[in-house]
Amino acid sequence: MNVQNSPTTLGRFITIEGGEGCGKSTQTKQIAHRLSKLGLDVIITREPGGTDNAEAIRELLLNGGDNRWDSRAEALLFAAARGDHVRNLIKPALIRGQWVLCDRFLESSRAYQSGGSGLSDATILQLHNIGSEGFLPDRVLVLDLDEDTANKRVFIRDGDVRDRIGGRPKEFHTAVRQAFRDYAQQDSERIKLIDAGADSDEVTDSIMDILQDMINA
Ligand code: TYD
Fold first, then answer.
1. Strand 13-18 and strand 191-195: pairing?
2. Atom 14 of ligand 1 has which residue's CA nearest to it?
3. Tens of pLDDT along 112-144?
4. Which residues span the domain enclosing 103?
5. Where are the alpha helices (DSSP H) in 42-158?
6. pLDDT tens readout for residues 12-32
7. How many domains does one find in the chain?
8. Which of these, 11, 17, 9, lies nearest to 190 by C-alpha position?
9. pLDDT grade for 58, boundaries at 50, 70 and 90
């Protein structure tokens, strides 16, 4: 079943994307709060993870040395985790009429495993077709932040500790940021680029403006 095209679907699926330290978690919570105040039934989830199986895969993906997985195995693991998450958490919630806010989703695989790691975008989309039947968010919010500010925020949050992927070199993260920006340009109807450098309440205001048509629908 394609939930997105089902007339019985009341919920909406929104993903929050961007590089390290761009404020995704804060914005996800703030948007959830604002949408709930409007009377909507909202849940928050995240990737990699969200279900027990996907959280188990998260441990495999984020711990260990940088060369633990090659780029293909890594992309397959993300796709497998996502498939479980879509099937067992996201789609059931949408069918119940809930709004699902997801901290990272497919565009992270496109940006990190393709933009940053050299697989083609077509390969990542193919894996998504296999793992999640090509299921797409209604809207993708990409938080865009200059690297110096992002690095400072990560340092304040995590000190020197980085996970397997977050700890990759500067060039990797530069490529990831550019990839996110490219996707927003290529599919501007669905993927929205947001300046995440402003005060966090102002960023939430901009996001709420972007979601207004869906809220009113
Ligand atoms: P997380 O601790 O959730 O980081 P953040 O707070 O930055 O969201 O770790 C997730 C890491 O996994 C992050 O470095 C991005 C990476 N990632 C991918 O490489 N591909 C993906 O498809 C997803 C969902 C995440």
1. unpaired
2. 166
3. 999 878 899 999 999 999 999 999 999 999 999
4. 3-216
5. 52-62, 71-85, 91-95, 106-108, 121-132, 147-158
6. 999 999 999 999 999 999 999
7. 1
8. 17
9. very high
Kindly give the distance from the C-alpha atom of residue 71 to the centroid of ligand 1, in angstroms, as a whole number: 14
* Phi, psi angle pair for 57, to nearest 5°: -70, -35
pTM for the full predicted model? 0.94
Q: Whose CA is nearest to atom 2 of ligand 1?
A: 163
- Contacts of 96 by beta carbon, 8 Å cutoff, 6+ apart: 11, 41
Does ligand 1 have an atom closer than 6 angstroms to the CB of 49?
Answer: no
Compute the half-sphere exposure of residue 63: CA atoms within 13 Å on the CB side of its CA. Answer: 6
The Cα-based distances of 145 to 20, 68, 104, 149 in angstroms read 9, 29, 16, 7
- 3 backbone dihedrals φ, ψ, rounded to 5°: -60, -40
- Give the model's confidence band at 9: pLDDT under 50 very low, under 70 low, under 90 confident, else very high: low
CATH code of the domain containing 92: 3.40.50.300
